[in-house]
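Our consortium's second objective concerns turning raw sequence data into structural hypotheses that experimental partners can test. To show how far this objective has progressed, the report includes one record in full. It was chosen at random from the queue rather than selected for favorable results. The single chain below, 260 residues long, was entered without modification.
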Amino acid sequence: MDIASIIGIVGGAAMIVMSVVTSGGSLMGIIDIPSVAMTVGGSYFAIFIAAPLKQALGLFKVMGRAFKIPDFGEKKIVENLVALSEKARREGILALEDGLDDLEDKFMQTGLRLVVDGTDGAVIRAILENEMNQIEGRHMSWINIVNQWAGFAPGFGMMGTVVGLIGMLNNLEDKSSLGPNMAVALITTLYGSMLANWLITPFSQKLLAQNATEMRSKEMVLEGVLAIQAGENPRIMAQKLLTYLDPADRKAIESEVLKD
């Protein structure tokens, strides 16, 4: 569970409540069901026009990943590749075929199978980079839908405000209702801005960060597989892969993978 996402939602809600209360308002004053329907419901259903049904229906599941901390096993990738490189150096490339099917990392498995089959390094790079591009393309397709929702929300907020103003102008003879009606009309603008800036856009940024981390881990695998194919010294390969890790993770395994 990514506690940062929880803190952001709860903390943001707390700050909004505090600002309303300390400014002399009341929570009931900013709660309006028709405004929720216009901004949240209206902007969400606009996604059904902008995106395929599968993506519109699966959007909440994808956004739910912002509450998870994905583990792409960067340290394990370095350890596995160094061990496989040492094995290939001792026993030959064909020795890597033993246990290949037991690898949990399918991307690494694909690359090493190409190595065992004697595939040229340039071809291996082209195949693995194409797979990385396709994976990232699918990720970005979902992230773009999230971004579209963030863009729709303020627009629907403004539409709700206009609808409220029309209703207010139709009842101008009742002077006492002008203030309350104006407040309700503006609530939809508030909801649209909150939805886009407090929730949806931050979700999008968290998903982008997760995508970048996954792509970095696959780039590590790509570089390691090509190093094995080229017969590179395992120690040199280890030093190259360690540059992808943050200082804490690097320190944790550096002595192990760089042992003489």
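The partners drew two points from this record. The first helix runs from residue 3 to 22. The two ends are 39 Å apart (CA to CA). Both points have been shared with the crystallography group to help prioritize constructs.
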